[in-house]
Design a protein that fits this description.
The structure is a homodimer.
Chain A lengths: L1 E9 L16 H13 L6 E2 L8 E11 L5 H11 L4 E9 L9 E11 L13 E2 L6 H11 L1 E4 L16 E12 L3 E8 L6 H14 L6 H8 L14 E8 L5
Parallel strand pairs in A: 3-10, 5-6
Antiparallel strand pairs in A: 1-3, 1-4, 2-3, 5-9, 5-10, 7-8, 8-9
């Protein structure tokens, strides 16, 4: 049996997210069909992050088990030939049987793009949130400092039916905001794990600080208050990209 | 009567090009409909460049005449509210009645993007030509030097029914090739005017030089030979963007 790890990229605009659903197109279903066609067997796949509808990925990590002897190169070329161009296999690696894409992940990094100019260029309309306001970058960076480290992030977690967490304590390892050309900003957020819509709620809250709708001093109070309604809005899905997942080095 | 100049951007993937046609969606038709709805009158528009199907624009220049008194700001906001998000009005300016977007243009600059890596990231799939070969940048830059200045470009002009040129002499003012992240390249080509598919034929020919299918020494011979078949292929439309049009400064 082989345990194969794939790093994949996708533009999620046309998809209902990672997870299989009969409601419409989803990345997991498309990838499983392509694998089935190639391997002539059903192989369930596991992904590190079940990205939501409209969310993109540059470095999603998935794995599957197979008895097939197809070399990795042929598998990658075959998959990219079968997959639509908005989903690409970037690399393949054979892992120890014990490898699990979620359990072995040390951290995940998400990027969130915001366009603050009065008009958003058409080329980035599926990849960034158009929020045409002057944002105070210094205030947003100060507020980001308050979110770094271990905190109870209940105020930045959305409710979802059937989803229960044992606790809401998570650790944000890195939170950087970088200005890009055309009045765009990139938020880079790295954490060991995230609550439901936590990244988009962090961005929505920081944008509220940038607009002056919240102050830097509000941010620690929002965390300790644990009330979702006190924080900023959930930034829309299309600005979010799963950028990179970090693993410990494993020996085959 | 007012003569209004617009600078517009569009992602042309879903369109059959600039020009009005009953065959399917086109930028000119969509823009004219929005203007008609806003101004309550039919206003024919003129564009500097009739971009082909799939071609994009960052700085297309168009004009129209109107008796409407709507201020420019209201016109811009109204148009952007009516237009689909893949077409944006970037700026508006009131011009002398004599202004004509084609006749008054001093030069046009096109950008062409190429992705040379084995896998093209999904995010640029509509914006760059995936040609997964190692390209010799030094050879391509030397060949580009041979195309600079005034030449007969018949060998780099495609045949089109009903289209006749008095002569094929054109002037290339600038031709630069810049490496970008992710093994992409940007070709920047500025000229006073271009023949049919000349920019895409220049790129296709330079890519052939980069791949070693043509040599630098072939390029001047291709120009003097005037045979289209001796040059490289026509690079596909989706890598091409009309970037900028330069005008002389006019007093209102």
């Amino acid at each position: 049996m082989r345990n194969i790890k794939l790093i994949i990229a996708y533009e999620g605009s046309k998809y209902l997210g990672w997870q299989k659903t009969s409601m419409g197109p989803n990345i997991e279903g498309v990838l499983e069909s392509a694998l089935k066609q190639l391997l002539q067997e059903e192989v369930p796949i596991q992904a590190c992050s079940r990205t939501d509808a409209g969310v993109h990925a540059q470095g999603q990590v998935v794995n599957f088990l197979t008895r097939s002897a197809i070399p990795l190169k042929g598998l990658g070329n075959g998959l990219n030939a079968l997959l639509p161009k908005e989903i690409r296999v970037l690399s393949l690696e054979e892992m120890p049987l014990s490898f699990h894409p979620t359990l072995d992940a040390l951290s995940k990094t998400y990027h969130y793009h915001v366009c603050t100019g009065p008009i958003q260029m058409p080329f980035v309309r599926h990849l960034s949130w158009h929020t045409p306001y002057l944002l105070d970058l210094v205030a947003m960076r100060e507020a980001a400092q308050c979110l770094l480290g271990r905190h109870d992030f209940k105020a930045l977690c959305n409710y979802r039916k059937g989803l229960r967490y044992e606790d809401y304590v998570r650790e944000v390892l890195r939170l950087e905001i970088t200005p890009l050309p055309d009045r765009r900003l990139r938020f880079e957020i790295e954490g060991s794990s995230f609550l439901y819509k936590m990244v988009r709620n962090i961005v929505g809250t920081l944008v509220y600080v940038g607009r002056g709708k919240l102050t830097v001093a509000d941010v620690p109070l929002i965390l300790t208050g644990k009330q979702r309604s006190a924080a900023g809005i959930t930034a829309p899905s299309h600005g979010l990209t799963l950028a990179h997942i970090r693993y410990k080095i494993m020996k085959t």
